[in-house]
Amino acid sequence: MTLRTERIGTIEEMRAFVEGDEPVDFESAVRSSASSTTRSGSGQGPGEVVRREGNRLLRDPRGDRLIARHRRTGNIRDHRLKPPAHAFARRYTPRDMALLAEVDEAFGQLSGPATKVILWRMRHVYGDEPFERFASISNGHIYNLRKSRTYRTGRLTFRNTQPKPVPIGVRRKPQPDGWPGFLPVDTVHLGDLGGRNGIYIVNIVDEVTQFQHLGALRRITQHFMAPVLEDLISAFPFTVHAVPQVNGFLCDDLCPFLNFHRPCLFPTEVTSTRSRVTKTYRQADVATRHQHFRSLPGAERFLRPEVTFDALDQSAAA
After folding, report:
1. Bridge-partner residues for 280, per DSSP?
2. Is the pTM of this model over 0.90?
3. Can you say whether residue 22 is alpha, beta or left, with left for phi > 0 and alpha for psi between -120 and 50 degrees?
4. Does residue 31 register a pLDDT over 60?
5. Domain edges within the chain
6. Nearest CA among 104, 129, 99 for reference residue 114
7. Which of 22-36, 47-61, 81-95, 109-123 has the highest mean pLDDT?
């Protein structure tokens, strides 16, 4: 509400107003029209208000600023009607948001700490100039940029970061469509006897022709499984579909990507005063698998004789 005080000009009128005998006018006003009491023009503009109530306004810092502005320009404007003269500069441009969308599309939108490491590596490891501003971005601001319209427009598919359960093993029946060479693999443990571990029987059966081959393993590990599977697969009279092609893609493309380029969050174990061990995930612990392997004490002694860290570094820089 705006109190119209122009009718109060003497001490007697002020006493009558305080005692409630003098009628006064109230006028409702929205915030955008409230500045009319301080704008120049006809009626009660600043020329009337400032001259009539200058002494009272001088006791208020805001009134002091209004009087000085009126004396300097002859007008008092509502500066909220236009953008600020010195707005905060935007550090990240629409091109940066589109670049972040491209990175998230390629890596599957990882968590903030992992994405921060990817952006840092793109600038400082691979020397990519467009990632200069991203090299020092914070985790929280990555999530802020993901909420922008420019980012969402640049994404082919958009979803929030969500935890995903990872099953230990997935049993899935193949769909051969009448083609032989699609082989389900099953294992059966024969049990232990007299304190000695029993063996595992590997059963491979073709889905269409029901060709079957059996093998025996001491343990279910890659060391024991790989040669037995190779022998069993080579014993089938027909071509085993998709296995060479899939393995070639996995070994040549997917595995190097996962091991050399995709960051992981490695936990740090903290022991409390009650000997309770908890795992924390710090930004300093985010690294690729290759980086984490290199950070292990005496990592060279774990390498195979034909493998060197120079060769692994070249794969990481490819």
Report:
1. 268
2. no
3. beta
4. no
5. 2-81, 94-154, 185-240, 258-317
6. 104
7. 109-123
* Per-position DSSP letters for the chain, written without gaps between them: -EEE-TT--SHHHHHHHHHT-S--EEE---TTTGGGGTS-SSSS-HHHHHHHHHHHHTTSHHHHHHHHHHHHHS----GGGS--TTPPPPSS-HHHHHHHHHHHHHHT---HHHHHHHHHHHHHTS--GGGTGGGG--HHHHHHHHTSHHHHHH-SS----------S--------TT-S----EEEEE---BTTBPPPEEEEEE-TTT--EEEEEESSSSHHHHHHHHHHHHHTSSS--SSHHHHHHHIIIIIHHHHHHTS-EE--EEEE-TTS-EEEE--GGGEE-HHHHHHHSTTGGGGS-TT--HHHHHHHHH-
Whole-number Å distance between alpha carbons of 116 and 131: 11
pLDDT score of 157: 63
Placement of tokens 């929205």 in the chain: 30
Structure tokens, 121: 């590596």
Distance CA 57, CA 61 (A): 8
